[in-house]
Specification:
10-stranded mixed sheet, disordered N terminus, alpha/beta
């Protein structure tokens, strides 16, 4: 192993943490000779670690009092949103299959291949990515197709431009069908893993319920995702978590632009006043579309595509879809110029995103999101202009330093919490050590009050973990 590879591996195993009163992010270096997971703080510049000594090994037992009470307090904010990127699907897939998730690979276009690949690479580098992915190619191919259609509109029917249009359309259909099938393959691997599937879904359920367990007096958790797969929906079904989105209907739900706040409430016995939210419900928005959304008959519909189906083609031929093909799938191309966000239905989805997070006393938790979409980042930056808003970034890695670059550029350290690294961002470690309890924990509240009455207030480690919030979770 070369020196450069050793330095890169060392960087990958470092953790970045910033919680509570930390003025700056603290870097933790993994101790290789330790029998268990442990780290030591690295002093850089004038940012010493005030809660650990330089020669002291730090493990989950020392990190938990710094992280769990802080996250528990934040998730009981008045408004709570969760932004999930592909990192969650990768983590669940890794737990279930012990192999990396491979998708978003570039497609092979035969016609205009050089033009599409060159422009895709250029726009990817302009957006801060090292290389182009499938979304970049799809966006460029769509723009090229639209340009060819504009040129061909004044040409005779036997003009070569018409042939180019037909050829590019067929290649787009083939690429989209292949991409949709790759998403289904990942779902199929997850569902077909007999040995570790239950463990993977248990961690997924605990992750979702740790944030969705809010008392009836607090606003709903609103889950946003840029993923096309149905991993979150599968976890919600297993957890019994009811997801409220903009789709209305049973057999083939239709996307509605009207924002009717249809919700589930209950009246507590013996309590007058406004009804409270029913537990086990969350709002759900897929910002970039989904593999089971299709545009047909001037409406966006969700058709019956089984989780992990073998092929998407037979389900596109169902009655009522009007012979739709893969070109009708509502898969959002990653647009550097934000053109697609002005089109239906994405304008409605991003309006929900901005309305949910840009409010006072709001907390946004991101997990597995690499901050590679500028149209999403811009809304998050607007949110932080509200002094009472807070951003929690949890990520397994930051290889291209987009997260830390955003942190430095925003200049609002008091409003940002960082948990970055292969330990702090690991789904298993988060659920086991650092996330709040996946339940509304009133028992701990009653126990703390009882102990306080019997023995009086005594300084202990629990005081370092915070107080108890009126929302019902122990802080």
């Amino acid at each position: 192993m070369t020196l450069e590879q050793e330095q890169q591996e060392q960087q990958e195993h470092r953790q970045i943490i910033k919680t509570r009163e930390d003025p700056k992010p603290i870097i933790l270096d993994r101790l290789d000779d330790a029998a268990s997971v442990s780290f030591k703080p690295i002093k850089e510049g004038d940012a010493p670690c005030s809660w650990a000594k330089d020669d002291q090994a730090i493990g989950p037992e020392q990190l938990r009092p710094r992280i769990e009470p802080w996250l528990t307090a934040l998730v009981q904010s008045e408004h709570l949103s969760l932004l999930i990127g592909s990192g969650l699907t990768r983590a669940v897939h890794q737990l279930a299959t012990d192999k990396e998730l491979s998708w978003m690979e570039t497609a092979r276009f035969e016609g205009f291949a050089d033009e599409i690949n060159t422009e895709s690479e250029r726009t990817a580098k302009a957006a801060g990515r090292e290389s182009a992915n499938f979304e970049d190619q799809l966006r460029v191919a769509n723009e090229l197709l639209r340009g060819l259609q504009i040129i061909a509109c004044s040409k005779p029917e036997d003009a070569p431009e018409h042939g180019h249009i037909m050829g590019l359309q067929q290649e787009l259909i083939k690429a989209l069908k292949s991409f949709a099938n790759s998403i289904l393959e990942a779902e199929r691997d997850l569902a077909g893993s007999d040995t570790k599937r239950e463990t993977a879904f248990n961690y997924l359920v605990s992750f979702l319920m740790s944030l969705a367990s809010r008392s009836g007096t607090r606003d709903r958790l609103h889950i946003f995702t840029t993923n096309y797969d149905r991993c979150i929906e599968a976890g919600a079904d297993i957890a019994g978590l009811r997801l409220i989105d903009r789709f209305v209907g049973t057999l083939m739900p239709v996307f509605r632009a009207s924002r009717l706040d249809v919700d589930l409430h209950y009246n507590p016995p013996g309590i007058r006043g406004e009804p409270r939210y029913l537990e086990g419900v969350a709002r759900f928005t897929k910002l970039h579309g989904s593999v089971d959304w299709i545009d047909c008959h001037r409406a966006i519909r969700r058709f019956g595509l089984p989780f992990g189906a073998e092929n998407i083609t037979p389900y596109l031929q169902a009655p009522g879809l009007g012979g739709a093909d893969a070109m009708r799938l509502m898969i959002y191309p990653n647009a550097a110029k934000d053109r697609e966000t002005a089109e239906y239905p994405y304008v409605e989805l991003f309006r929900d995103f901005a309305a949910s997070i840009c409010r006072p006393n709001s907390t946004l938790v991101t997990y597995g999101y690499s901050f590679g979409d500028e149209h999403v980042n811009r809304v998050i930056e607007d949110m932080l202009t509200i002094p009472s808003a807070h951003l929690v970034i949890i990520s397994f890695s930051d290889p291209q330093r987009r997260i830390m670059s955003l942190y430095d550029r925003l200049g609002r350290p008091a409003q940002i919490t960082l948990l970055i690294g292969d330990h702090l961002g690991d789904l298993r470690a988060l659920v086991d050590h650092y996330l709040p309890k996946p339940a509304i924990d009133r028992t701990t509240l009653r126990m703390a009050e009882l102990l306080n009455k019997r023995f009086g207030a005594q300084p202990s480690q629990s005081q370092d973990c915070g107080t108890t919030d009126t929302g019902g979770q122990s802080l």
